[in-house]
Amino acid sequence: ATIKRTDDFDEIIENIDIGGPAMVRSAAKNHASVLILTDAKDYGLTLEKLQNNSVDLEFRRYLMIKAYEHTASYDSMIANYMNDRFNGGFGASRFIAGKKVFDCRYGENPHQKGAVYEYDDFISKNFKVLKGEASFNNMTDLNSAVAIASAFGNAPAVVICKHGNPCGFAIKENLLESYKAALKCDPISAFGGVVAINGKLTKELALAMKEVFTEVIIAASVEPEALEAYSDKKRTKIFSHESEFLLASTESFNYKAIDGGFVFQERDKVSDDEVANAKLMSKKSANEAELNDLKIAWKIAALTKSNCVAYVKNGALVAIGMGMTSRVDAARAAVAKANDMGLDLTGCALASEAFFPFRDSIDIAAKVGVKNVIQPGGSIRDDEVIAACDEHGMSLYFTGIRHFWH
């Protein structure tokens, strides 16, 4: 509470508790003779057990473990804060402390256990279960979908994700039109997928979405009539943020588990200014509508697994290749899927989250009618890529910022 209120270091130091944690730890150590309460949610249960004379060793151990979790979390918060303030977040130790929000049905597979934990209170405050039980895979897919949808502020964005990757996206005049446009990108992959709605799930939108099986829906808010419309769809899960638009946390760091530990980093963020400040490298420039498509494509590419390319036309994702071992393969895969869907890519924008190492992806894009390209730049063959765009009459912008996501 203190570090949220002030940056005055003397006041922060003064508010570090000494006696409280010491007494909690000593009482926990002596749990065979003492009941140590560190969670107000346990008051009622403790009173009931005292009144019924049913306090046993198992209950004492339950309270003891919660006490040590409490002091450990408190000390880790202090240590992390000090490293954030004085060591740029990368001190000799880094602590990851989370409080369980709920158990998942199971982990990535039925033989694995899983649960959702939160650092502060972001999930418990903003993730409301309206229908169904969230699985481990649901939560990771939701994380990807919400990251993309919330990146567009208050725009009526709709994202369709499958296995953590977008397979549909659109921003149209309203959420219903956005959903219809997003679905056109890859309706096959959308089956059994996750849909994030940057606004209210209405009955009208719910009825349109029911035509395709969706496993998980998350919306900023949900009308009761929309929830009722899905009452006969037992397998569809619905969650909300109970807000006007979808929310993303403000965590400044993230990490990934590796064998024996984890790698820790500053969190990547995509700024609206990256396209606005991008440098025109070609003879041709993009008009206002084309720049808007470039902005959408750029954000989608930045928030999609590498290697990836995203094709956007008239505010909607029309093709995407992701998670490939080469960028040209991502370009080929995206075009092949678009051809299978019968989608016209003529005049669309193409974004790559990292530089094109060769002109081959540009040549593929030219064959399907791409008119505008955005990428970070920085390849030793940038001149060849620029020349290819000029040769094909495309605009080309360099942002100077790479957004790998592995």
Helices and strands, with pairings:
Layout: H1 2-5, H2 9-14, H3 19-29, H4 43-52, H5 57-86, E1 99-103, E2 115-118, H6 122-126, E3 128-131, H7 136-150, E4 157-162, E5 165-171, H8 175-185, H9 187-190, E6 193-201, H10 203-209, E7 214-222, H11 224-229, E8 237-240, E9 253-258, E10 261-266, H12 273-276, E11 279-280, H13 288-302, E12 309-313, E13 316-321, H14 327-341, E14 349-352, H15 360-367, E15 372-375, H16 382-391, E16 395-398
Parallel strand pairs: 6-7, 7-8, 14-15, 15-16
Antiparallel strand pairs: 1-2, 3-8, 4-5, 4-6, 9-10, 11-16, 12-13, 12-14
Helix pairs in contact: 3-5, 8-10, 14-15
Helix proportion: 25-40%
CATH homologous superfamily grouping of the largest domain: AICAR transformylase, duplication domain
- If you consult CATH, what is the topology of the largest domain? Cytidine Deaminase, domain 2
> Count the helices. How many?
16
Please state how the strands of the largest beta sheet are arranged side by side.
Answer: 3-8-7-6-4-5
Average residue pLDDT: 96
- Please identify the structural class as seen in this structure: alpha/beta
Known CATH architecture of the largest domain:
3-Layer(aba) Sandwich
User: At the first level of CATH, what is the class of the largest domain?
Assistant: Alpha Beta
Q: Name the poorly predicted regions.
A: none
What kind of sheet is the major sheet?
6 strands, mixed
The value of Rg in angstroms is 25 Å
Distance linking N and C termini: 35 Å
Number of domains: 3
